[in-house]
Amino acid sequence: MLEQVLRQLFIESFKTLYGQEPPVQQVNFQKTRPEFDGDMTIVVFPFGKLAGRNPEQLANEMGAEMIKESDMIAKFNVVKGFLNLLISDKFWMDFFKANHENRDFGRKPTSGKNVVIEYSSPNTNKPLHLGHIRNNLLGWSVSEIMKANGKKVVRVNLVNDRGIHICKSMLAWQKWGNGCTPESTGKKGDHLIGDFYVLFDKKYKEELKTLLPENFAALSEKEQEEAKAKAEAESTLMKEAREMLVKWEANDPEVRHLWETMNQWVYDGFDVTYKRMGVAFEKIYYESQTYLLGKALVQEGLEKGVLYRRDDNSVWCDLRDEGLDEKLLLRRDGTSVYMTQDLGTAQLRVNEYDPEKLIYVVGNEQIYHFDVLKRVLVRLGREWGNDIEHLSYGMVELPNGKMKSREGTVVDADDLMDEMVATAKAVSDELGKAKDLTPEEADKLYHTIGLGALKYFILKVDPKKTMLFNPAESIDFNGNTGPFVQYTHARICSVLRKAEEQGIKLESEVKVSDLQPKEKEIIVMMYGWPIVLNQAAENRSPAMIANFIFDLAKEFNQFYQECSILKESDTDRRMFRLQVCDMVAALLRNASELLGIGMPERM
After folding, report:
1. Tell me: the pLDDT tens digits for 181-197?
2. Where in 67-204 does DSSP place strands (E)?
3. Is 172 helix (H, G, I), strand (E, B) or coil?
4. Domain 119-407: what homologous superfamily?
5. Staple 340 to which of 245, 294, 512, 516, CB 3.0 to 4.6 Å?
6. Selecting from 3.40.50.300, 1.10.730.10, 3.40.30.10, 2.60.40.2250, what CATH number does the domain 413-593 have?
7. What is the average pLDDT across 448-467?
8. Cross-strand partners of 362
9. What is the CATH number of domain 2-87?
10. Can you tell me the distance from the alpha carbon of 193 to that of 173, in angstroms, rounded to the nearest whole number?
11. Are 317 and 301 in contact (CB under 8 A)?
């Protein structure tokens, strides 16, 4: 905003002085370096030849003309070819007067076509884990950020409810479950099914050991690989799982009934976790309902000659002429692969929402998959395949390494949220943050702090980066954390409450015209919020929002330390500072909402 206004002022002033229009792409302002006097700086070297002036002469002439043209420039100074501009208090006060009561400051009205954003995408053979937490929080936050920028967002979830991994859990329950249910075991359904998935893997590995030759350890590496492949082919358990998948696709009533029953247990468990995490969807798709449409697209591709069938009956797309390889779309037994159902799901969403963009929030290990998906769709005549965007994010790692679902070494989402709330309670009680609250209020505060700490810690990292999650670091009331921002908000609320208790009511009218340094700095920071919000949407990066609220919280705490508020003797200045407090609190809430983080009023 400020940069745009200054750019236009610079261009008009340049045209007035020199009768030439400078190249717009070279008119770039940046914040003035701390050692110099000013707010914004432009390097004038690129314009010297066009103006016929040396850099210092050009900078002085341009500074004088810009002051003449606009009252937003209070004064200027020149350091060699650098023109430093000091923005007038009037400009900042006009901004503050126009926006200090605007609770939608920075947000844009909704317009345009739909944007469909897919996130979560769980499997029904295990509960949600730490990796899903990053996925869900990132997808939900990006959706909210794009909505705040005026996009029509449709949040969707694609549940992977079919496939060999689902059959493994089902088979394990049949063999070793003894008819147990979530009710009989007291376990959430997703946890119960996850246990059977782990059990299948354990039993499968035990079986493989019996199928390997006794001298396996003495074999060469190549011989070991061959022995493993032979054992896997001979595995009775894996054969039964594959047979179950074929029966499922053939609509075998017994298999389908078991599948529906066990999946419902998982969905009930997912719902509890989603609600606690604070994420939601406008539409949930199920791969069991979309894979047939994918198969129809594959058949269409065969008829058009853009796909081909091998002698073993499997169907492929040859992308070697585009620098990729051949991609399997149907197995030789006719069953689907992930790509098949993704083709069908994409087509279904385009039919339903006619979106301008299809965004998939999926880990960076699937970059190749989505590159192929786009190309296959385009080959099938779906030019909208080019509108697919893979919002790739890095994996979440633990201090002791990566997680493995089939080995049961994941960090469960429910357990992690429990741990975060418990840690928040311990730290809050130690610091006396909840001493004046009722038990109910305290429990709500622990939940708000714990989940806020989790969300902030996850979302403050650039999505593209792999991150190391350490719960102990996330709950710190003094660091770059959610609780620090939450405590700052509670501090502001405390100031406003005390003002009300003293009979001081916030006014709409702003009666001061000059700014003291800390007052100006915090207003300047709030002025930049719409730019940050826009950049966060363009970059699909909640980290930019997290960085902003942390910087704003730090700036407020410096303002709070250096500027007397309730004890200020000048009543107009005191009211102005209370108005600043009110706008900061509102902006912290507004921005934090986009991360799914609640802002307590008391801590």
Report:
1. 999 999 999 999 999 99
2. 73-79, 82-87, 114-118, 152-159
3. helix
4. HUPs (3.40.50.620)
5. 294
6. 1.10.730.10
7. 94
8. 392
9. 3.30.1360.70
10. 8
11. yes
